[in-house]
Amino acid sequence: MSPNSAALTTEHFEKFKQTFLSEEKNLLAQNVCSKVDPFEVALSRKRIEETQHIFNTKIDAEGKPVTNQKSSGRCWLFAALNVIRLPVIKHFNLEDFEFSQGYLFFWDKIERCNYFLNNVVETAKRNEPVDGRLVSFLLYDPTCDGGQWDMIVNLINKHGLMPKKNFPESYSCEASARMNQVLKSKLREYAKAIRDLIQKGASDADVQSLVQEQMTNIYRIVAICLGIPNDTFTWNYYDKSKVFHSVGPITPKEFYETHIKPLFNVDDKVCLVTDPRTSNEYGKAYTVDCLGNVVGGRRCIYNNQPVELLLELTAKSIKEGEAVWFGCEVSKRFAGKLGIQDLKIHDFPLVFGVDIQSTMTKADRLLYGESAMTHAMVFTAVHTDDKSEVQKLRVENSWGDDRGEKGYLLMTSEWFKEFTFEVVIDKKFVSDDVLEVFKQEPIVLPAWDPMGTLAC
């Protein structure tokens, strides 16, 4: 086919316009969408009337206050800490409580930058070209805010936890773009220095000496933007009866090991994913090349299972009183103001004459770049019918309390099957045959694989 035969001509444009003008509904849609958010226009009034934020099975008590990650990509940290705080609130008889998201964010930035620089070392030793797909991918976003469950486990096991009152938010916690801009610039500069040194035949000791020198500057930048957490702290609090209590002085790691781990042990939780691409079998373990945040920490391991199992175990966990951390693609078929995730919440054909996200399967969307896990939240309730089939789930988000049902979302089971990719479940709810998959040597997916997308 010649280039000229594929080019759009004046005749094509005229035909497109006449086809558009021949339907008066298009003019009405144009008038409305020129003044209003097109997705708001497409909202189905009927579906809204049918949707109620009511559930017949909830965990004992949800956490307070509703959290807000603001202008940062820390949803994975917020969701994890929102889950962990639930048994803490109950055990200590608290009215409300938050762990310090800024504390884990500080250590993730330090550890993640070191992990990136050591990835530069590793890929240079593999003779990966700087303009090849792998190194180009790593350089594109050397230190984003997003993360995965196994990264949370790495941070907590190494650095522990701290109450928010002992390490509150800073400007760059809530709006991380400027700090990240500085870090990314320096990391790319440092990547070149590392590759140049390795190309000259430097010893491993000399390379690591350079990395440590670079990390001194990285630490300074992060410390200036986020502050430096104290080595020890004292947690003073009132319980619901207004009785004063004090814990400490104590290190963050001791705080986790002594007071939190008996209530919520991150090592007892397992991450299950669902990837329906025919190239990736169910019942297999996968990992992603160069993905992680702590050098020497555990790898991000994906136990691939059918989505129906993820939904079943989520409902089982909630019925047993345990909330569930999960990852999904939050923006698809989502009425943000109303907090509804439902495949029928928008009537796109009525507005645009075509539907979206309807003809491609979940596997197709992964293959064609139309879908990936982008956000982490928490399931706190489930609604089942008289046959115990899941109909909908309640979701605790981290965008403040002015969206959805006072900060909570509603997700239908159909939406779960299409756009949820990952859940974290306690081992006690998972069958032995599924747990056995974690003993496999994982298949390594390329760094750019959509299963390596980080929740932010």
From TrEMBL:
<keyword id="KW-0963">Cytoplasm</keyword>
<keyword id="KW-0788">Thiol protease</keyword>
<dbReference type="Pfam" id="PF03051">
    <property type="entry name" value="Peptidase_C1_2"/>
</dbReference>
<dbReference type="GO" id="GO:0070005">
    <property type="term" value="F:cysteine-type aminopeptidase activity"/>
</dbReference>
<dbReference type="InterPro" id="IPR000169">
    <property type="entry name" value="Pept_cys_AS"/>
</dbReference>
<dbReference type="GO" id="GO:0043418">
    <property type="term" value="P:homocysteine catabolic process"/>
</dbReference>
<protein>
    <recommendedName>
        <fullName>Bleomycin hydrolase</fullName>
        <ecNumber>3.4.22.40</ecNumber>
    </recommendedName>
</protein>
<dbReference type="GO" id="GO:0005737">
    <property type="term" value="C:cytoplasm"/>
</dbReference>
<dbReference type="InterPro" id="IPR038765">
    <property type="entry name" value="Papain-like_cys_pep_sf"/>
</dbReference>
<dbReference type="GO" id="GO:0009636">
    <property type="term" value="P:response to toxic substance"/>
</dbReference>
<dbReference type="GO" id="GO:0004197">
    <property type="term" value="F:cysteine-type endopeptidase activity"/>
</dbReference>
<keyword id="KW-0645">Protease</keyword>
<feature type="active site">
    <location>
        <position position="75"/>
    </location>
</feature>
<keyword id="KW-0378">Hydrolase</keyword>
<dbReference type="InterPro" id="IPR004134">
    <property type="entry name" value="Peptidase_C1B"/>
</dbReference>
<feature type="active site">
    <location>
        <position position="397"/>
    </location>
</feature>
<comment type="similarity">
    <text>Belongs to the peptidase C1 family.</text>
</comment>
<feature type="active site">
    <location>
        <position position="375"/>
    </location>
</feature>
<dbReference type="GO" id="GO:0006508">
    <property type="term" value="P:proteolysis"/>
</dbReference>
